[in-house]
Amino acid sequence: MANFQTHLGGAALGGGFVLSGALVTGLMSLNEAIAGWCLVMIGGILPDIDSDHSNVVRALFSILGGIAAVLSVVALADKVPLAGLWLAGATSFIAVRYGVWYIFARFTVHRGIFHSLLAGCLFAVFTAFLAYRAVDLSEDVSWLMGVSLLIGYLIHLLLDECYSVDLTNARIKRSFGTAFKLFDYQNIGNTILMFSLLMGLITTVAPPITELWYLMTDPRVRWSWQKSW
């Protein structure tokens, strides 16, 4: 499989091409294009969150632990003394960084459900939801943020598949076909759960799905791809 540097570099290069096309055609402002480029790079390393010992996992859960610590301190700021706030923050960080990480690692398998198009779509819709509800971006720009992350996600999966082909010895490795798949063929339960989460996000809190359709049929999208390549 491709290493961390290859995934990050491939996503940065591919995202640069795509987002520059979106910028030239007026689909995005400069700030939005830069944010989208960052999301492409995040998507470019995100599938490896199911690798128990990867740098991505450690960094991700450290960030989530920090966020949990800050939220717990903010929530208890007027209710407990300073020592209690320190304890709450430290407990929240440890619970997420090590407790939630352990549970996640226990029930996930590398190159399982997270190395699939279904998982990429779930993360993309979740990104669009955050951009729309939390950051208060417009419907079309929110979907562009989600699509940006999905592009990086797909770049990661494709790079892993490319590394499954040994051109030197003219052979296909046993890992071929495990990195890019529609869903987890080995665990239908996980697939049903993730698909249900995806549909729940789309039908409840994500920007209107019709806006994504209008966006994808916009002539500027076609021109952005042509100008990118």
UniProtKB/TrEMBL annotation:
Pfam families: YdjM
Entry keyword annotation includes Transferase: no
Transport among keywords: no
Domain of life according to the entry: Bacteria
Keywords: Membrane, Transmembrane, Transmembrane helix
TM region(s), chain numbering: 56-77, 83-104, 116-135, 141-159, 192-216
InterPro entries assigned: YdjM-like (IPR007404)
Protein name: Metal-dependent hydrolase
